[in-house]
């Protein structure tokens, strides 16, 4: 299977932009759909071999048309929260899209799909709608009967300049710099660097050994959520007291936040965080990728003031 042109669904997002840059360097032609071309174009329009197409990929005819001249698909589309609370939004974005994608690939003779899932995604045992629907997408891809060779990537939380993890906690900490109530503080994460993730995907694209495999992707170290928020607070130069919430209060906080526009935290997030997001075996090593430490990257993408104050802390410590 020789892959030259790849459709990257969700290619305008945090992971997607890095992936497009990386695959463009390898000489692939790329096609990236977006719901809003003006809003999403970012640096992507500077890539000469990338076509940005405004379309609704939930419309099966649009999806078939989008894939007409492609050899493979990488699906990065995902949501952490839905508008309602009944799972319908997650099903539409994570499950229905994959059903349509498999049909669109069959019609266009495409036999390669790479799918971004998540650690703990599991159609039956997933704790949240997010994890259940991501797991269902994995099942659909692995049980396809049209000859598609899938590869599934299952990362812990991903960090990098425009991430929604450290940046989200940084903006929340700035609003509440003295005391910070923290739900699910004991949950463990192994944050993985976005450039390590895209390197793994880039190496897997044309590697038959990656067909029909699931890869768990983790960073250099495991931290509790409390450690990570403490780290972010230190990086911002704040002297914030983190107040760990017990499980019942965490759930109540999530229920209240369900009603806040944009859902900074939700019941579904709370349920996802009931399981540690850590690897049984870090598959980055299969491709000889050494995981990058958060300490080498995260301080650089906080503001200049925050950056210098972070290092002055260590100067004072030494
Ligand atoms: N970031 C993490 O820490 C992390 C951890 C584990 C797994 N993942 C998974 O990795 C994938 C990429 O994550 P990311 O952080 O790069 O996500 P992101 O920045 O939110 O980007 C996702 C992209 O998907 C498209 N999209 C979102 N909702 C859509 C919808 N309802 N219909 C159609 N398109 C939609 C958007 O494109 P347009 O707005 O241009 O249409 C967006 O650019 C996701 O599947 C996510 O679940 C991420």
Order of helices and strands: EHEHEHEHEHEEHEEEHEEHEHHHH
* Count of extended strands: 13
Bound molecules: NADP nicotinamide-adenine-dinucleotide phosphate
Residue share in helices? Answer: 25-40%
Spatial strand order of the main sheet:
3-2-1-4-5-6-11
The main sheet comes to: 7 strands, parallel
State the domain count. 2
| Averaged pLDDT | 93
Annotated CATH homologous superfamily of the largest domain: NAD(P)-binding Rossmann-like Domain
Q: Would you tell me which CATH topology of the largest domain applies?
A: Rossmann fold
CATH architecture of the largest domain: 3-Layer(aba) Sandwich
Low-pLDDT ranges: 307-318
The end-to-end span amounts to 55 Å
Provide structural commentary.
- This protein is an alpha/beta fold and 318 residues long.
- The chain has 2 domains: 5-160 and 191-217, 3-Layer(aba) Sandwich (Rossmann fold); 166-186 and 221-277 and 292-312.
- The protein contains 12 helices and 13 strands.
- It has helices at 14-25, 37-40, 60-66, 88-107, 129-142, 166-175, 194-204, 225-235, 247-257, 267-272, 294-297, 304-317, and strands spanning 5-9, 29-34, 50-54, 72-75, 112-116, 149-155, 158-159, 179-182, 188-189, 192-193, 213-217, 223-224, 241-244.
- A 7-stranded parallel beta sheet has the order 3-2-1-4-5-6-11, sandwiched between helices.
- Helix 5 links the parallel strand 5 and strand 6 (149-155).
- Helix 1 (14-25) crosses helix 7 and helix 6 crosses helix 8.
- Bound molecules: NADP nicotinamide-adenine-dinucleotide phosphate.
């Amino acid at each position: 299977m020789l892959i030259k042109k790849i459709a990257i669904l969700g290619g305008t997002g945090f992971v997607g932009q890095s992936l497009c840059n990386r695959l463009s360097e390898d000489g692939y032609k790329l096609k990236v759909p977006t719901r809003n071309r003006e809003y999403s174009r970012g640096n992507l329009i500077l890539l000469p071999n990338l076509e940005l197409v405004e379309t609704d990929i939930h419309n099966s005819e649009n999806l078939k048309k989008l894939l007409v001249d492609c050899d493979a698909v990488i699906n990065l589309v995902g949501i952490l929260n839905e508008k309602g609370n009944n799972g319908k939004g997650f099903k539409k974005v994570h499950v229905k899209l994959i059903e349509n994608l498999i049909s669109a690939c069959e019609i266009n003779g495409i036999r390669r799909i790479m799918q971004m899932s998540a650690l703990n995604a599991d159609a039956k045992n997933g704790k949240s709608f997010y994890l259940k629907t991501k797991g269902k997408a994995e099942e659909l891809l692995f049980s396809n009967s049209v000859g598609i060779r899938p590869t599934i990537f299952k990362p812990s939380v991903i960090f990098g300049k425009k991430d929604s993890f450290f940046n989200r906690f940084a903006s929340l900490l700035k609003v509440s710099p003295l005391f910070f109530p923290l739900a699910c503080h004991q949950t463990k994460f192994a944050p993985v660097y976005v450039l390590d993730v895209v390197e793994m995907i880039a190496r897997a694209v044309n590697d038959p050994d990656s067909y029909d495999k699931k890869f768990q992707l983790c960073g250099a170290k495991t931290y509790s959520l409390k450690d990570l928020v403490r780290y972010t607070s230190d990086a911002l130069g704040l002297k914030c007291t983190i107040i760990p919430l017990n499980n019942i209060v965490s759930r109540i906080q999530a229920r209240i936040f369900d009603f806040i526009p944009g859902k900074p935290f939700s019941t579904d997030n709370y349920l996802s965080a009931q399981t540690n997001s850590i690897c049984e075996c870090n598959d980055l090593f299969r491709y000889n990728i050494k995981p990058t430490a958060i300490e080498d990257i995260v301080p650089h993408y906080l503001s200049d003031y925050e950056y210098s104050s972070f290092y002055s802390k260590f100067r004072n410590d030494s």
